[in-house]
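Subgroup meeting minutes
Present: P.N., E.W., G.H.
Scribe: E.W.

1. P.N. recapped why we're keeping a running log of single-chain structure predictions: easier to compare across weeks, and new members can see raw inputs and outputs side by side.
2. G.H. added today's entry (213 aa).
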Amino acid sequence: MVSIVGFLILTGLGVWQWERRAWKQNMLAEINAGLASPPVTIEKIPDSTFSWRPVLADGSWVIGHLIRVFPTTSAGKVGRVYAAPFRLKDGGIIAVELGWSDNEIKGISLPQTTTIIEGVLIPARKPSTFTPDNQPPEDWYWIDPIALTRTAGLNDTQVSSLILRLTNPPEGLTGRQAKPNIPDNHLQYSFTWFGLAIAWLVIAVLVHRKGQQ
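Output recorded in log:
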């Protein structure tokens, strides 16, 4: 009985990883399709369906509310990501990732007039459960659009759940690639579980035969 239960559990884990692989591949296909699409102009807060889409945002910068997200890494170096709120034409706010630098930058010059910025919309989420909580207004460990908006004293009921990652960062900053680095190891995991299930079954049969001798 124990042998059968063990075999079923291991096989079930293999099937689960196989299904996860299909889900992951569909997600990656959607991301790639979004990144390959032509830019669309947005004047109001985009919904989640715009994730991983290139856009042209029409609006103006909220001057004086630059934040520094530290630490972040790029090409093996530790640095900072800079971000600022951007008011879209209809009044909604979107957090904009300006770029990355391994040197601390005191100030970044942003236009004070209406402008159009280009970038890719990405989901705003905490990197991991190990990432510390932000402590505004000074200590930021990830870009939280709502917290950024509140810190700037703006209406937090009109905030995008997406972040706009600039295609052309201001001088002194380096843009980070829009395409996420998402591993797809589910096929390997699936075969590992199936292999363990077969090994478990073989051992169980050998033990059973030995017990009958």
